[in-house]
Automatic annotation (TrEMBL):
EC number: 1.1.1.267
UniProt source species: Cupriavidus laharis
Reaction catalysis annotation: 2-C-methyl-D-erythritol 4-phosphate + NADP(+) = 1-deoxy-D-xylulose 5-phosphate + NADPH + H(+)
Gene Ontology terms for molecular function: 1-deoxy-D-xylulose-5-phosphate reductoisomerase activity
Protein keywords: Isoprene biosynthesis, Magnesium, Manganese, Metal-binding, NADP, Oxidoreductase
DXP reductoisomerase C-terminal domain segment(s): 264-380
Family: Belongs to the DXR family.
Domain 1-deoxy-D-xylulose 5-phosphate reductoisomerase C-terminal: 146-232
Binding annotation for NADPH: 10-13, 37, 124, 126, 208
Protein's name according to its UniProt entry: 1-deoxy-D-xylulose 5-phosphate reductoisomerase
Pathway: Isoprenoid biosynthesis; isopentenyl diphosphate biosynthesis via DXP pathway; isopentenyl diphosphate from 1-deoxy-D-xylulose 5-phosphate: step 1/6
Cofactor dependency: Mg(2+); Mn(2+)
Binding positions for Mn(2+) per the UniProt entry: 150, 152, 224
Coiled coil: none
Length: 395
């Protein structure tokens, strides 16, 4: 029996992971489930999957969860807070950890899983964007197995030869595909009027609200470029982004001899999740087979960086190195949250991130403390920008 901890079990990725696990109850047992606030939803999953441990964000949520579970006769041990997240991610009783918390909050527990030498199924791209070198070093030093769950990186992983430098030398570039989100063809002059619900209505994927907004600004692809840099040791100039509105080709690897390998499939996160769970085997993910005749034409185009300034900012941060990607990520998290709360316009997201990035000092990202400090400062600076924007008479 393979035991798994799911960090962020109530989210979109968490739910899809539980769906795959449910289909293979003979192979997988759930060791721990975590959630931030959705106690009822977590309780229902604990009642179904009977994990040994469950973690929530606050003492109140823990009391509520405990009451629900005891009433249902479930003995899952309940705890709360950051230390508990790190503990369930590194427990000796778990084999794999699905890192599916959204944002910087996932960094410490994901890193704890790597340091405990777990098999880490990485959905939480923000953790890797922030801590790149530190995280990859931890994976190597502690013998962890890192399997990318982000669909593009999972595709590239599938298209790359085994982890052998002799073969990796033949790779010319990696090509990340992007759907272009809901505003790919919208008149740029009207982008400032977009509402949070419009931004979250992704044409091909159903995802959490933060990543949905990131897809609409294409910051998501920017974060993925940085993620690809760390996962595959690819320099910025060997990472290309192509818009592919159908989301059928999930990404590609181009080789020196002119070959291009791609991974295709219907857009459903259960495919990369099942791949990560069973690797190197393949199991049923509950995803229907791709019908290319039905899919029709597949289109590709270069992204318009004027329409999607966040993508350009992410490339800037990657080239700047050091803590710049952590600064980019933190400013983006604050700006996206403010947009989702109705506090700023859609187009302000890129303005805030650009402003924070431009004014932040760039140190080497040589310790977790330095990275977390840069993250905190960038958040303060982004909040100051927000303040300025919301009080500005020029709006
Ligand atoms: P979501 O918002 O649906 O779920 C987020 C989960 O994280 C929830 O379980 C929530 O309880 C938990 N969480 C939120 N804040 C927390 C905090 N402060 N402390 C502890 N837990 C917290 O998000 P999602 O769409 O499932 O995305 C999760 C991660 O996976 C993100 O990093 C995202 O970029 C990545 N990802 C998602 C998809 C997708 O299709 N949804 C695809 C690729 C990558
Ligand atoms: Mg992706």
């Amino acid at each position: 029996m393979h035991r798994i901890t799911i960090l962020g079990a109530t989210g979109s990725i968490g739910e899809s992971t539980l769906d795959v696990v449910r289909r293979h109850a003979d192979r997988y047992a759930v060791h721990a489930l975590t959630a931030h606030r959705q106690v009822q939803k977590l309780a229902a999953s604990c009642i179904e999957f009977r994990p040994a441990r469950a973690v929530v964000g606050t003492p109140e949520a823990a009391r509520e969860l405990e009451a629900l579970l005891r009433a249902a006769g479930v003995t899952t041990e309940v705890s709360h807070g950051e230390a508990a997240l790190e503990s369930v991610a590194s427990d000796a009783q778990t084999d794999s950890v699905m890192a599916a918390i959204v944002g910087a909050a996932g960094l410490r527990p994901t890193l704890a899983a790597a340091r405990a030498g777990k098999r880490v199924l990485l959905a939480n791209k923000e953790a890797l964007v922030m801590s790149g070198r530190i995280f990859m070093d931890a994976v190597r030093e502690h013998g962890a197995t890192l399997l990318p769950i982000d669909s593009e990186h999972n595709a590239i992983f599938q298209c790359l030869p085994a982890n052998d430098q002799r073969y990796r030398a033949g790779v010319a570039k990696v090509v990340l595909t992007a759907s272009g989100g809901p505003f790919r063809t919208r008149d740029p002059a009207t982008l400032h009027d977009i509402t949070p619900d419009q931004a979250c209505a992704h044409p091909n994927w159903v995802m959490g609200r933060k990543i949905s907004v990131d897809s609409a600004t294409m910051m998501n692809k920017g974060l993925e470029v940085i993620e690809a840099h760390w996962l595959f040791e690819a320099p910025a100039e060997h990472i290309e982004v192509l818009i592919h509105p159908q989301s059928i080709v999930h990404s590609m690897v181009a080789y020196m001899d002119g070959s291009v390998l791609a991974q295709l499939g219907n857009p459903d996160m259960r495919t990369p999740i099942a791949y990560g769970l069973a690797y190197p085997e393949r199991i049923d993910a509950g995803v229907s087979q791709l019908d290319l005749a039905l899919a029709g034409a597949l289109n590709f185009e270069k992204p318009d960086l004027a329409r999607f300034p966040c993508l350009a900012l992410a490339f800037d941060a990657l080239r700047a190195g050091g803590v710049a990607p952590a600064v980019l990520n933190a400013a983006n998290e604050v700006a996206v949250e403010a947009f989702l709360q109705g506090g700023i316009r859609f187009t302000d997201i890129a303005r805030i991130v650009g402003n924070v990035l431009e004014n932040a000092p760039n140190n080497a990202a040589d310790s977790l403390e330095t990275v977390l400090d840069a993250d905190q400062r960038a958040r303060q600076s982004a909040r100051a920008c927000l303040q300025e924007l919301t009080t500005s008479v020029l709006r």
